[in-house]
Amino acid sequence: MTKANSAIEVSGLHKSFGKTHALDGLDLVVETGEVHGFLGPNGAGKSTTVRVLLGLLRADSGAAQVLGRDPWTDAVELHRHLAYVPGDVELWPTLTGGEAIDLLARLHDGGRAQRVRQGGGGRRAGGINKQRRAELIERFDLDPTKKGRAYSKGNRQKVAIVAALASDAELLLLDEPTAGLDPLMEVVFQDVIVEAKAAGKTVLLSSHILAQVEKLADRVSIIRLGRIVQSGTLSEMRHLTRTTIEAETERPAAGLDALPGIHDLQTLDADAGRVRFAVDGGHVDRAVRKLTEFGIRSLISHPPTLEELMLRHYGDELAANGHSGNGNGAV
Amino acid sequence: MTTATVKKAPARTAPVTGGNGLAGTRTLIRFNLRRDRVRLPVWTLALFLGTIATANNYKELYADPEDRAGVAKTMDGPAGLAMSGPSRYLTDYNFGSMLGHQMLGFMAVLVGLMSVLVITRHTRAEEETNRAELVRSTVVGRHSHLAAALSVAVIANLVLALLLAVGLAGAGIDGIDGTGSLLYGLGHAAVGIVFATVAAITVQMTAHTRGASGMALAVIGVAYVLRAAGDTGSNGALSWLSPIGWVQRTYVYVDNRWWPLLLCLALAVACAAAGFVLSTRRDVGAGLRAGKLGSPVASDALGTPLGFALRLHRGTLIAFAAGLFLMGAMYGSILGDADDMLKDIDQIQEALDRIGGASIAESFASMVMVVITVVAAVYVVMAALRPRSEETAGRAEPLLATGLSRARWVGGHLAVAMGGGTVVLLAAGLGFGISGAASTGDAGLFPKLVGAALAYAPALWVTVGVAVVLFGWFPQASAFAWIVPVYAFLVGYLGQILQFPDWMNNLSPFGHVPQLPAADMSWTPMLLLTLVAAGLVRLGVAGFRRRDLETK
């Protein structure tokens, strides 16, 4: 197929449900071959975005291209090249997990490939790589003989994850895929995504598990109120944001507050000369040189965690809701 | 009510109750009534007002005694009796006995439906959604859910009985007196409570609300068919197997017999006790039948939209086909009597001659077809609305994110709905044809009856079309597709009794089908219905393709 430079290109996307503006001018670019973290709390518009990218919802305005296709008009053809894991998988009560996996895999090819049976050299049967399917079922510790209604939430997620990863899709749209998975399975999931990336697949990983995104994502987009508020690699984003520094000096450090880019200066222990402050990415050097003037005994610097990056965009909301920051937050 | 009779079950496990198995029942009853504060008043008022309106309607339609005598004569045949009640009522056909004869059996089905839904909603549906688990973790006895649900059903039925007794007695209609009205009301309550306790058993059997409701509704259906066969046939023994038959044999407003209500009470006590005993033999959330494991891989057929849809619809389709085959066979078995019973009645013979050379058996068969097609239409609407329930349950989303187009996905379901509807009709026709041909000794009747059933297929397809248009363009209003079978039932069934004008009949797709085998075949309406169905389906699918998928 023809391939655009970026796997996903979205600009100025708007989508309303009645009076609610779910998407309010969303721009998003996901490069081919990257794992792209899509961050935001519940209700920010993550799932709506993914569903527009799948052609399940029709955007009110704006442009979206997925693998060089229009997701609304070209949905079916597009779906042959991608796989989707929803955050809340519902299965058919009377079908077993194994049947659901096969069904999704066969329909992935529009039911066409189902006559391609095992043997004759082909390992694929019905759009699914049987070996891969068996391996994934094993790794995720899934019982494929249970009926859909007998599965717990986490096991339903596993069914969808196995179906998506056993396919030969080049793009994976994962909408909070590990909700309900236990920590052991979370590790398996992360391994599998790393492998998928190594195999050249593109992944859009919508999540609010920051540790997961921090570990897997090459680039991150943060969505708020239906709009991307920040997008870039983690190191880019860190550079743009504040580093927290905690220092102990021989003499009490004075004059820090006069420096540019210093925020939230706190004196933790005046006698011991312990201070803590946040400093903007571009001013770390000046601040540290200032500290050396007072004789540094110890110096701890935290790069901003993803949580702090998020809080930077959502902190006002928390404050408005009566939550205080966690003290060393970069907000 | 019946809860007091419950003994501790000889359960496998030792009873865990530290004492009161009914703790918290009163709170649960209040809670259930609160949840049903709209539902139950609507049910009871609709049933009550429908009865009052019918009684008033009689007063206008059949003002003269001659009119009533005329109705009594038309009713006194297999077709009339199958649709109403035992012929004892016809001896003195005043407004009261008309009500008891024509409405009681029909209302019993509706009251039963209300009662069954109350029970499944407050017991099995609670367990299936895991809400019962949460409630049971508090100070609530193991029998409290069932006891509370039964209490609510009893309350609803008694309220309805009271409304009917007071409302009818006060309506000032000749022949409808106070004592009769009280019996009439309590007859409704008795049969409603019986079916509520039947549901108390079925909810123990399966872990699924739909299955439990379906089983209980099947019992209502069998009870109705038994009484229909018993009232029509030469001996009434079959009617005595049916609770609906029992309340009809109170001969309300004619003899005012009270003792058949005791039969209902005894059966209700027995069923409720069985329900409580069975409930102790299972775990919360589980059914008596354990869940089975299935195949770890999908069969080849499952990979196509049609094969997949067929798999989802399989159970319902088989159940309806089997049910309608039996229903057809039952009506067929009394077809032989129809000729004998009516041969000597001149008026009916004359009336039938006017229809056009049809035999009595054939005209009766045409009436039966109406009932059969309404049941088939219920199946068809259920099947055609399946895509909607798949969509709202969030199960359409992962499928439509694959290489499956919306049209093919919905097309699979529609093919099953239309094809399945035809299969269901065929099953009914076969049952009716085989046993009808056997009971009349006329083998030539078999192909006629099968053909008569199949003639309704295009009208079923139109019903599917209506459901698809709603699904495609007004998904929130999909449930309005139920209007089609309900309306067809009203005009096809009550219309015969209440003499609706022609245009009302023509509004229903079923009104355009030639009434085989009594009438002649005419292909034009069949062709037109097929074209209308095709147009509606295209329109509906087009609507679905351009709207947002509803997601959770």
Automatic annotation (TrEMBL), chain A:
The keyword ATP-binding applies. It is a peripheral membrane protein. One of its GO terms (biological process) is response to antibiotic. GO terms for cellular component: plasma membrane. The lineage of its organism: Bacteria, Bacillati, Actinomycetota, Actinomycetes, Kitasatosporales. The keyword ATP-binding applies. It is found in: Cell membrane. This is ABC transporter ATP-binding protein. One of its GO terms (molecular function) is ATP binding. Residues 8-250 form the ABC transporter domain. Keywords: Antibiotic resistance, ATP-binding, Nucleotide-binding, Transport. Its main location: membrane. Belongs to the ABC transporter superfamily. PANTHER family: ABC TRANSPORTER ATP-BINDING PROTEIN, ABC TRANSPORTER ATP-BINDING PROTEIN NATA. Pfam families: ABC_tran (PF00005). InterPro entries: AAA+_ATPase (IPR003593), ABC_transporter-like_ATP-bd (IPR003439), ABC_transporter-like_CS (IPR017871), ABC_transporter_ATP-binding (IPR050763), P-loop_NTPase (IPR027417).
TrEMBL record, chain B:
The chain crosses the membrane at residues 40-58, 99-119, 146-170, 182-203, 215-238, 258-279, 315-334, 364-385, 414-434, 454-473, 480-501, 521-544. The keyword Hydrolase does not apply. Keywords: Membrane, Transmembrane, Transmembrane helix. The keyword Cell membrane does not apply. It comes from the Bacteria. This is ABC transporter permease. The lineage of its organism: Bacteria, Bacillati, Actinomycetota, Actinomycetes, Kitasatosporales.
